[in-house]
Write a structure and sequence with these properties.
- Two copies of one chain form a homodimer.
- By secondary structure, chain A is mainly alpha-helical.
- Chain A contains eight helices and no strands.
- Chain A starts with 8 loop residues before the first helix and ends with a helix.
- Chain B binds a DNA duplex (30 and 30 nucleotides) through loops.
Chain lengths: ~190, ~190
DNA sequence: CTTCATAGCTAATGATCATAGTCTTGAGGT
DNA sequence: ACCTCAAGACTATGATCATTAGCTATGAAG
């Protein structure tokens, strides 16, 4: 019963994301994916040239969602440090809600330019707040904050923090420690 | 000419590591691996029950090498902050020398206990220095430093720092920023 | 010089990604 | 109403991969 399309790029990416979130991280098979959409594997090639392109689309969507999560936060916040902590918490919350997706998006190596805009869109709102905290070198400290948050989240998801403790409180503490370091200007 | 073993677990892991470092990150096929060792794919099953076990062995070896890189540094250093910066630099240098291996080791989710000892061995020397810097909560700040270093390295390798700049200098700056935050004790 | 555990082999299975070519639908012009 | 034809999904096929079963040749030990 073709012609009125039964699926779309969006629906495929959505279904792929759900499958990734369930099974093992790279267990996404086109057969599974097609079945969950009610179509046959070759039909997927109408929408994506190959599996790698499909996964790239999923990863770009993940980055876009991360951006969407970060944007709304800085509302009437006057204290830039409070705003940055709020963003960091939102970021971490998203990653915990979609751990496999998040890991997948950050295990790829992005050599193409197609990701630049997406990454920039994610970075700019953050950088705006960093600039109000660090007098100079806001790009460096934007990267520092991102590294800190991303690293913490990845190590959590990968179960590398095996020695217990309150990981929520530790996260806040660590982010605030970095922001304190920013305040005490030196070098 | 069987019986005198032609390969060993160590040689297999070594060859696997070289193949991983070349091709795409998950392109390691048992056929390739066997060919590079001069044997046939089924022979690998004499040494590992399956491919996942082989990759786990490779990842544990990666973590062990990271430990070995971190241990020798703190020699006659008296300043704990200088020691921590030196360790951070070594860690980053290793990751840059074996980027694919490093990414592979940290994209897995370690649910088993077999990794605990390896991780602990990597963490303890670091924690020793952290304790001399942070008056309290050394475990939290050990995790913070690790997250910072790991996150920075991963984002570098994944080419997510696309806006240029001196990434070496930025790394030092960021690590020192966190250490400064540790010094300015608050909460 | 016989035994036998060992290390590697060949062959076969089932799952996967990918491609080529075919059939069916239904929108738009006649 | 009907014909055209591009779009969408299908069947069928090939190549590659991980894995299993069972066989063969080596060489150390008695």
């Amino acid at each position: 019963m073709p012609y009125p399309a039964q699926v779309s790029r969006e629906r495929i990416v959505l279904a792929a994301s759900e499958l990734v979130e369930q099974g093992e991280i790279d267990s996404l098979s086109l057969a599974q994916l097609a079945q969950s959409l009610g179509i046959r594997p070759p039909s997927l090639y109408r929408y994506f040239p190959n599996k790698a392109a499909l996964i790239l689309a999923l990863n770009l969507d993940t980055l876009a969602q991360l951006t969407a999560v970060n944007l709304p936060t800085p509302q009437a916040q006057s204290d830039p440090r409070a705003a940055l902590l709020a963003i960091a918490r939102n970021y971490r919350t998203y990653a915990h809600a979609h751990p496999k997706r998040y890991l997948l998006a950050f295990s790829a190596v992005y050599t193409e330019d197609s990701t630049q805009q997406v990454l920039l869109a994610m970075a700019l709102p953050l950088q705006q707040w960093v600039e109000q905290t660090a007098s100079s070198d806001s790009l460096t400290h934007l990267r520092g904050l991102w590294a800190l948050i991303h690293g913490y989240v990845v190590l959590e998801i990968s179960r590398m923090f095996q020695r217990g403790g309150d990981l929520d409180a530790a996260f806040d503490r660590i982010v605030m420690t970095y922001l304190s370091g920013l305040a005490s200007r030196e070098t």
